[in-house]
Amino acid sequence: MHIARRRGWEIPESxxxxxxxxxxxxxxMAGVGALSIAGALPARAEPNPKFVPGRGLTxxxxxxxxxxxxxxxxxxxxxxxxQALKQRPWTIALGGLIKTPRTIDIDxxxxxxxxxxxxxxxxxxxxxxxxxxxxxxxxxQLLKIAEPLGSAKYVVxxxxxxxxxMPGLGSPFYTWPYVEGLAxxxxxxxxxxxxxxxxxxxxxxQNGGPLRIALPWKYGFKSAKSIVKIxxxxxxxxxxxxGLQSREYGFWANVNPDVPHPRWSQAHERLxxxxxxxxxxxxxxYAEFVAGLHEGRKSEKLFM
Length: 304
Description:
Elements: H1 19-23, H2 60-63, H3 79-82, E1 91-96, E2 102-105, H4 106-110, E3 116-123, E4 128-138, H5 139-146, E5 154-159, E6 179-183, H6 184-187, E7 193-198, E8 201-202, E9 212-214, E10 227-233, H7 240-244, E11 268-271, E12 277-279, H8 287-290
Parallel strand pairs: 1-10, 4-11
Antiparallel strand pairs: 1-2, 3-4, 4-7, 5-6, 5-10, 7-8, 7-9, 11-12
């Protein structure tokens, strides 16, 4: 997501891979051992049938090569640079309003959760979209591990700042670190998903490895990448893009085709790989899971 000018529509024509073909792919775990994290993902199983994407999967080569990640650079081409970000060792600090603040190693965390695959639609605020198979665990499981106090109203995510691997951190235009947040009831929702894998392999660094979040009913900038700190707070945080341009990027950022961005329409979205333009759906097609979350927040700017 870019504040000023770049929209990034330069994707070659190609068809979207049919979902059935993608679900039959196996053997994708080969080579994971070379990444020294062979134990990080279980053997790939059938996706959770509760979450039906309603469209074919995006071909892997597009989803893993067209990325917003400003800590590296402000283009969509960050793949080469991102490989410098080491994925192990990796720890996550749990803090704030919880029973026992502590730091946990990612592989120790993965031993405490039940992993699964979910196929989710992903909608960027810039109007491009993809449909991908994430591997990971529900954020609700992490809440149980953290044991937040009753006074905790928000969950705040902070992403890694590796100044050696991430030259974009030197940009004077952004206020690092990248911070995102959810109301705690949103974090406990079935859809909120902590991601450790993509297409049956560890999620690559350009997509936010080794640990990111997927919130398919919200615009993509809410899905923090490469998370190193999770804090439980009573006060709502000022998130990264909200702090830079609150008129354009709010805290809630729920997808709504009828609420335009100040500089472009949100009525349609462009599918990565095919460039097909399709109508955007309210909550990105996940209204049945989340529409009731915001009944008491109708005075808020829920769709920006």
